[in-house]
Write a structure and sequence with these properties.
single chain; about 270 residues; alpha+beta; Jelly Rolls; Arc Repressor Mutant, subunit A; 2 domains; five-stranded mixed β-sheet; 11 strands; about 45% helix; globular
């Protein structure tokens, strides 16, 4: 493993910068990442957050991995070592903040899915591209609102059993999982599992399994696996099942995705 550990200073993010604004105690940037972009192991010198405006990426941590899907807020504490792999063209909003100036501390890592936060961050991304004389004031106000919502979300922290369910799904998504089996594993009622899971993760159990299966199939297709084999390895009943689901999620057939993923040879 390449354990390169670049340290990014205040306001620095990887990617192609579309727009940037310094407002109050915040540095807010809008960055684009091409499909296949691989960001090496690195750390941020200060706490920061990233909101996935479009696309998504997989983040590698020391000993674990997390999926950073569209409309997810990703939280990084200072000096957290991580690396990112972008599976599709993506756009992200990156935010640094001066804790002393805005009167707030931040010392945790993880992901948050909140309709309120997503609406604020999406508005901020639009405002950055608009960019007029009022933009700094608007951005500062939006960031204060977003961190206020984040503090509120912290007060409603995710239950440990939900983390266990998510980990179980991540490791066994290719198997025929059921709400009843997952609920029994977590020690809760299936109805409570379904409601709490969607509330905290923004997707149903079935939707998360579908996303994980499609991402696994993408990886297999990129490695040159036959489509029928990629389908079975990802948990689909057959190649036809893979094709229907893959097209519904990505807008492409597996064959079209394979052709688009080929690297031209000189």
């Amino acid at each position: 493993m390449d354990m390169r550990t670049d340290v990014l200073a205040h306001g620095e993010f990887f990617g192609n910068v579309v727009a940037e604004q310094r407002a109050g105690g915040f540095v807010v940037t809008l960055n684009d990442y091409g499909r296949g972009t691989a960001i090496p192991w690195h750390r941020h010198s200060e706490p920061c957050v990233t909101f996935v405006v479009a696309g998504g990426y997989r983040e590698r941590l020391q000993g674990s991995m997390r999926e950073c899907t569209v409309r997810t807020l990703v939280l990084h504490e200072a000096d957290e070592l991580h690396a990112d792999d972008f599976l599709a063209p993506s756009r992200c909003l990156g935010v640094y903040f001066d804790s002393r100036r805005i009167g707030m501390t931040f010392d945790r890592t993880g992901t948050v899915r909140s309709p309120a936060i997503a609406a604020i961050a999406t508005h901020a991304a639009y405002e950055l591209r608009r960019c007029d004389t009022m933009t700094p004031l608007v951005i500062e106000g939006l960031m204060l609102q977003m961190f206020g919502e984040l503090s509120r979300a912290d007060g409603d922290a995710i239950a440990p059993w939900l983390d266990r369910v998510r980990d179980e799904i991540a490791s066994r998504f290719a198997e025929p999982l059921t709400h009843a089996a997952l609920a029994a594993h977590a020690g809760v009622h299936p109805v409570h599992l379904a409601r709490a899971f969607r509330r905290h993760f923004g997707v149903t159990v079935g939707e998360m399994i579908r996303q994980l299966r499609v991402e696994h199939a993408k990886s297999s297709i990129r490695r040159g696996r036959p489509l029928a084999q990629a389908a079975l390895e990802a948990g689909f009943a057959d190649q036809s099942h893979l094709t229907r689901t893959f097209r519904a999620v990505t807008g492409l057939t597996p064959g079209a995705f394979r052709r688009a993923s080929r690297v031209p040879r000189c």
